[in-house]
Amino acid sequence: MKPPAQTPQYKPFNPVEEAIKLKNEFSLPVGLAHPTLYDIEQNIDQIDQYNLFIELNIDKLLVPAAKQNHILQRIAELLHSTSKIQLSIGSDAHTIFLIGAVKPIWDFVVENNFHNRLILISE
Known about the structure:
By secondary structure, the chain is mainly α. It has helices at residues 15-25, 37-49, 65-80, 103-111, and strands spanning 31-32, 53-57, 87-90. It starts with 14 loop residues before the first helix and ends in a 12-residue tail after the last helix.
């Protein structure tokens, strides 16, 4: 999927640029919520360089199984290309039937041995 066209009236929101600004302001973990595969592919170097985490969210996997497999395989390739990007697991609780729906993402973490990349934030 391509990003929307940029016009003088509309400058697309860049989640990575905004996350980097926050990372520079605060000393807490900063990550990308709900990134698309396109977001990850286009920004993997910056995500790695600025130590941003990626939230893997079920809402990006509500596609036919073949496409879901492609998305997860490509994300795995990108994550295996760098060793320090951390992950969080999310379910899109904006839709009631998705609350807690994290099994496909958990399976992905287990299959790719990404346990050590999970970020847990506690107070």
